[in-house]
Amino acid sequence: MHIRGDHAELVVGGVLDVRSAADARTVLHSAVDDGVGDLVLDLSELVSWDATGLGVIMGAHRRAGRCGRRLVLRGVPPQMQRLLVATRLHRILAIEGGIGVESLPRV
What region holds the STAS domain (predicted)? Predict the structure, then answer.
């Protein structure tokens, strides 16, 4: 997993899972705490995430809200869009361009 960017936009790539969660949490919390306005997470380079990785994203979302900021997801890969829809988190998280639920492939 790698994260690069500034306090306004971060690109998350690789695998966000139990092995990388602690490092990702540290970087995301720092970006939330040190910035202002929306924090955009570009997930277009993310290969996969597990429940722990999704928990890191949700934790960053809650922390951003407490700091008066908004976490915005950009470039969410289709398989991760399906997970967000299945867990109904697409209704809670800000997703740039939204998720066209009807256009997602059925599994």
Answer: 1-107
pLDDT given at position 7: 73
Cα torsion for 87, 91, 95, 98, to the nearest 10°? 100
Inside any domain, residue 104: no
Count of domains for the chain: 1
Residue pLDDT, tens place only, 60-80: 999 999 999 999 999 999 989
22 in any annotated domain: yes
User: Can you say whether residue 93 is alpha, beta or left, with left for phi > 0 and alpha for psi between -120 and 50 degrees?
Assistant: beta
Q: Where are the alpha helices (DSSP H) in 1-107?
A: 21-34, 51-66, 78-86
* Global confidence as pTM: 0.86
Q: Which two tokens stand for residue 46?
A: 């993310």
**Range(s) of the domain holding residue 85:** 2-95
